[in-house]
Write a structure and sequence with these properties.
The protein is mainly beta and 495 residues long. It has 4 domains: 122 residues, Immunoglobulin-like, CATH 2.60.40; 95 residues, Elongation Factor Tu (Ef-tu), domain 3, CATH 2.40.30; 131 residues, Immunoglobulin-like (Sandwich), CATH 2.60.40; 107 residues, no CATH class. It is built from 3 helices and 36 strands. It is elongated, with a radius of gyration of 35 Å.
Length: 495
Amino acid sequence: MAITVSSRPDTVSAAYLPTRYVMTSDKMPNTIAAEINQTINNITTVTSTINSIFGGVFEEGDTIIYLQGSITVSLATGEYVKITGNTGAEYDGVHKVKTVYGSSTSGIFTIETTYTIDAAGGSLSKYYKDFSIVSDLYIDSAFAVRMRAQVTGDNNFVFDFSRHLQIYLGSDVETLNATARVQAENTAKPFYIKYAEEYRIPDSNNEPIITTQTLTDDVSNTKVAFNTAIQYVDYRNKEIVSTNYNMNDFTTASSTKRFLTNMPSSVKIGSSEHFFLTLPETIVAGTYVIKVDTYNSSNALIASNNYATYTGVAAYRAYNVPSGTSNLSSVITAATAYYDVYLYNTTFSVQQTEKKRFIINRDCKPLELRFEWLNQLGGMDSYTFIGHQNKQSSIERKQYKRNLNAARVIPERQYTTTQNISTDTFTVNSGRVDYETSEWLQELFNDVETYVIIDGQRLPVQILSDSIDVWNTQGNSYNITFEYRFAYDKITQRN
């Protein structure tokens, strides 16, 4: 008698997609051989004669059931039975056991159901009243929530913990010029469940109360949830990348294992700008390094740098890998035109991730406005807009009018401003970008957490546009334009 977990979430799961456990139980519907399909001999009422035969254990007028054949079902007062196929279906349904004669497997008992007519035939099975499966969710080894599920039409018990996992996940905003790899504690969290059956069991007074059975610990099947939204069809750069919510690209260590970003394989970056690549870590053994290969303007390799070495990393976590020019200033020289960032396992001599290329743009521009945003995969992306920016200010005034005194005193007011609500709206343009970069930057339109970097500070902003304008200027050259405002009100005095 047990619960079977027929389906668990993927080892690496996107929290903004269904995170489902599917279970079955041999108690609902009851498939326990010893407790089902007992043949009913007859159902009648307890008369004085019948009661005397059984030593007066029953009450006259009660409905009594006699089973026949080999009796295997064990019953007790306060438990439940289900009858099917009874002659005329007079007693088909669920009934509470009132009194059992002799041993629990005597096959002679009364039910708390009003007698209507003698009946025969059909079968009887033990029934677990108000049956459900409870499942306790543990996130980072701490209890988070308990859920209950009733049986579905296909005899399954389904739990979807995605909404609860989302509450515990968020972004990890690192120090702009950080030089060390940092665990992204909010981007990914391990989780597992404990589960048990729950149904009515008679207490010491033979009253059936809902009782939770002993919990089974599923910690050996720990999974990890990422703050990620994978599309059913991942369509990027004019091709279908994956289907059916596939996260395999982020979990299998290889030269194609992806970072948590949809950025193109190469992007432009200023000579002193930050960037972090977020890595979903699945390595459980070995030593690996952050590799930074630098190249000059003639495409010649300057150095293949082992930027940082790590041993014994925690599997199924997320890490932010320093990748910007300001983060890697110790290995980037004035001769560096571009560089590649990736991870390499020195123990097994194998590349662990894809390579991302950063092309250094040392030209000065009138506008250099760097945005940072929580991307759809859970990492933090950054890009500098170098086109142009317009500002529009608006103000809403609340005024109070009063009657002037007959004898006026300068500078007495008739109108008084009680509140000013001022808003600055900015329209910004990316400057020319290629198609792949334009596709990536359109994530800003759906973003829920965006910053603009000004004088080394992150300032939170809100994207205001209902749509983002994408202009194909010429050939493979595009412009991205949208509106934003700072994510706080301007403070003004009141009169």
